[in-house]
Amino acid sequence: MSNQAQSPLKVALKGPEILNNPRFNKGSAFSREERDEFGLRGRLPYAVDTLEDQVKRAYEQFKARPSDIQKNSFLQSMKAQNWTLFYALLRSHLIEMFPIIYTPTEAEAIADYSHLFRRSEGLYLSPPDVDKMEADFLDACEGRELDLIVVSDAEAILGIGDQGSGGIGISSAKAVIYSLVAGIDPSKALAVALDVGTNNSDLLDDPLYIGYREQRLRGQKYDDFLEKFVGLVKKHQPKCLLHFEDFGVTNAQKLLAKYRDQHSIFNDDIQGTGAVTLAALQAAVAVTKSKLIDQRVIIYGSGSAGLGIARQLRDAMVLESESEDKTLSQEEAASRFWLIDKHGLIKKSLGQEKIRDEIEETFIRDEKDWEAEGETSLLDVVKKVKPTTLIGTSTHAGAFTEEVVKEMCKNVDKPIIFPLSNPTKLCEVDPKDANEWSEGKALMATGSPFPPVDIPGKDKKKYIIAECNNALIYPGLGLGTILSSASKMTDKMIVAGSKRLSELAPALRDPDQSLLPEFGDAAEVNFEVALAVLDQAIEEGVNKERGIPEDKDERRRWAEGKRWKGTEYLDYTYDESGLR
């Protein structure tokens, strides 16, 4: 990463070239002097706008679009024209526009990608051109030292599944969020689609589908394709963070396990979901004045999100126990978890045909504890386990019934209930109902935004429902890793980021407030997360960046200076040797 230039930026583009370059284009905000110097005088209307003028005009245009998908298309068009205006607009209306640039609207745009396609959004790699992959990769990275690569094979996109070449949309959207709330320079980021085919028959039957029109690559050929791609990243962009996004659960787990010690690797579906859930749970534990290692946790739903959460919480318990001189093994920490899927409690008697390969042995319950239970439902497990924490990642709407919630309340004063499935219609319980059934005792976080709920016995006071939005933490985890040039993103770095996020929870000041900060504060929150990750990388000795200040206050100022300040225009001067 580099400091934002303060003196005039040297640019080697003129006329239509600079107007058509989103990195340098200012549109109507070019000054009189710049219009003369860059040959723009007759190419722009006479008035010189401020960025504030442009944001106001763009917002009016945004609001004039009648549907969310048209608003998404408008913002995509703006990003292709003028980065500074695009990010300034988003930052000015972050809460309103985030669902447009990401879930749920981006999922709709990705599903219809072949019909909405106008221009490239990044790098597309497919099996027929595997022998040319290095040349294509180098072409995309020419002249750039990247900080970030976001890659997807589009097998599990935003709850809508296999989307083939449309996966570039999720890679691009994630890169935008990194720039928006963490300050990653978009000129140092690359979105990649590994278009390895699709099993989506709707796409294969669509005459306008623009992706690789074959069944999805599997087995050794898939592994070799990924090996070549990751090898190119390690060879040509050794300092960048490689962010895996929306891979199918089997490949996601396998790739993370294989490569995380070879390069700075991060998988948001596994580690990001786990990290933000850990932060919310740490805040809840602080409210209940208990400890993380004392929790009994039921996870209802054992896909990539549920397993990622289980692993993250387990590993955090192990680390917490080390600091208290009563070290737990992974097996001992795992014994505090009960995983449930469509077959009931995951236990040995289910047999291999009903237990997915990704589920680690330590999470599979021993049969001797459940000999008389048969096929164990959620309520059965709640009655026997007496959990302190119930987490839902099942997309089973209404699974946390009144009986389940009331059963939890029999055994703990403040049950921790996190129905994390999204969208809203798939949530395991409406927080309003859980609040009523628990008589206001439940500490809650959800995967989608929900309105505050009334607190029984507290006239007109509301309980604020935390939203476990990954964007509260993954950009900060990434920024801290990038700032440190870490050789890998370690478990301790992730736990340090989660811990810092939990410390910013409003609930620590008022238990009726949210277990996580508001998303409107995402930029400030992620910077704090990044500093904690940076400190941890230094403590573990995995940082490769030189010149990081030893003093914490100086380090903060140094880190702030490294962030991309893309929501304000710089002055330009023409120079043939300048940036292009």
From TrEMBL:
<dbReference type="Pfam" id="PF03949">
    <property type="entry name" value="Malic_M"/>
</dbReference>
<feature type="binding site">
    <location>
        <position position="469"/>
    </location>
    <ligand>
        <name>(S)-malate</name>
    </ligand>
</feature>
<dbReference type="GO" id="GO:0051287">
    <property type="term" value="F:NAD binding"/>
</dbReference>
<dbReference type="GO" id="GO:0004471">
    <property type="term" value="F:malate dehydrogenase (decarboxylating) (NAD+) activity"/>
</dbReference>
<feature type="domain" description="Malic enzyme N-terminal">
    <location>
        <begin position="79"/>
        <end position="260"/>
    </location>
</feature>
<dbReference type="GO" id="GO:0005829">
    <property type="term" value="C:cytosol"/>
</dbReference>
<dbReference type="InterPro" id="IPR001891">
    <property type="entry name" value="Malic_OxRdtase"/>
</dbReference>
<dbReference type="InterPro" id="IPR012301">
    <property type="entry name" value="Malic_N_dom"/>
</dbReference>
<feature type="domain" description="Malic enzyme NAD-binding">
    <location>
        <begin position="270"/>
        <end position="538"/>
    </location>
</feature>
<feature type="binding site">
    <location>
        <position position="422"/>
    </location>
    <ligand>
        <name>(S)-malate</name>
    </ligand>
</feature>
<dbReference type="GO" id="GO:0006108">
    <property type="term" value="P:malate metabolic process"/>
</dbReference>
<feature type="binding site">
    <location>
        <position position="245"/>
    </location>
    <ligand>
        <name>a divalent metal cation</name>
    </ligand>
</feature>
<protein>
    <recommendedName>
        <fullName>Malate dehydrogenase (Oxaloacetate-decarboxylating)</fullName>
    </recommendedName>
</protein>
<keyword id="KW-0520">NAD</keyword>
<dbReference type="InterPro" id="IPR037062">
    <property type="entry name" value="Malic_N_dom_sf"/>
</dbReference>
<dbReference type="Pfam" id="PF00390">
    <property type="entry name" value="malic"/>
</dbReference>
<feature type="active site" description="Proton donor">
    <location>
        <position position="102"/>
    </location>
</feature>
<keyword id="KW-0479">Metal-binding</keyword>
<comment type="similarity">
    <text>Belongs to the malic enzymes family.</text>
</comment>
<feature type="active site" description="Proton acceptor">
    <location>
        <position position="174"/>
    </location>
</feature>
<feature type="binding site">
    <location>
        <position position="269"/>
    </location>
    <ligand>
        <name>a divalent metal cation</name>
    </ligand>
</feature>
<dbReference type="InterPro" id="IPR036291">
    <property type="entry name" value="NAD(P)-bd_dom_sf"/>
</dbReference>
<dbReference type="InterPro" id="IPR012302">
    <property type="entry name" value="Malic_NAD-bd"/>
</dbReference>
<dbReference type="GO" id="GO:0005739">
    <property type="term" value="C:mitochondrion"/>
</dbReference>
<dbReference type="GO" id="GO:0046872">
    <property type="term" value="F:metal ion binding"/>
</dbReference>
<dbReference type="InterPro" id="IPR046346">
    <property type="entry name" value="Aminoacid_DH-like_N_sf"/>
</dbReference>
<feature type="binding site">
    <location>
        <position position="246"/>
    </location>
    <ligand>
        <name>a divalent metal cation</name>
    </ligand>
</feature>
